[in-house]
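Q: Hi! New to this. If I give you a protein sequence and the SMILES for magnesium ion, can you show me the bound structure?
A: Yes, paste them in.
Q: Okay, here:
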Amino acid sequence: MGTRKPIFIDRDGVLNVDVSPYISRSEQLQLFPYTVDSLQKLHDDGFDIYIISNQQGVALGITSEEELEKITETIQSSLRERGFEIKKFFHCTALDSANHPWRKPSPGMILAARDEFGLDLQGSFFIGDKWSDIESGARAGCRPILVLTGVTAPGSWDQWEHKPEKVFPTLKEAVDWIVKNDR
Ligand SMILES: [Mg+2]
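A: Thanks. Here is the predicted structure of the protein with magnesium ion bound:
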């Protein structure tokens, strides 16, 4: 086995339907129909997948660490049936107002993954659905990719300081492009 490549992906609005204000219970988790296939394609192409997710709902009391863990387990079990797993879920459960270094748009969760797993971020991708994902990925030195299955209206990124390298309708098209164009 050669060296596996890291890829960083936001959760809500990328892997699954986002729910306003937050997904609070695991029963609300609704993966997009292409999500498992797309993650498998990345895995089979040599990527180790890290989820990078703000979950302020925990600090707000809307959800809990236990529900977060149930959601993680639900996603992992659907991948385990295919013979792989997401390498690790990073969640920032702090309030936005706490200025936690892990909270996107800060790059802290990506840097924590780098330090924990000894990753080389050079050329790695970050797929997200929000300005804060693109900003976090760019600040960590990743190649930011935007998908439109979440909260971002087409064209609004024209105003952003860091712009997505590519924009795709969904994770499916993003993954198809990445496996053809990485490194
Ligand atoms: Mg999102």
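A: The mean pLDDT is 95. Let me know if you'd like me to explain how to read the tokens.
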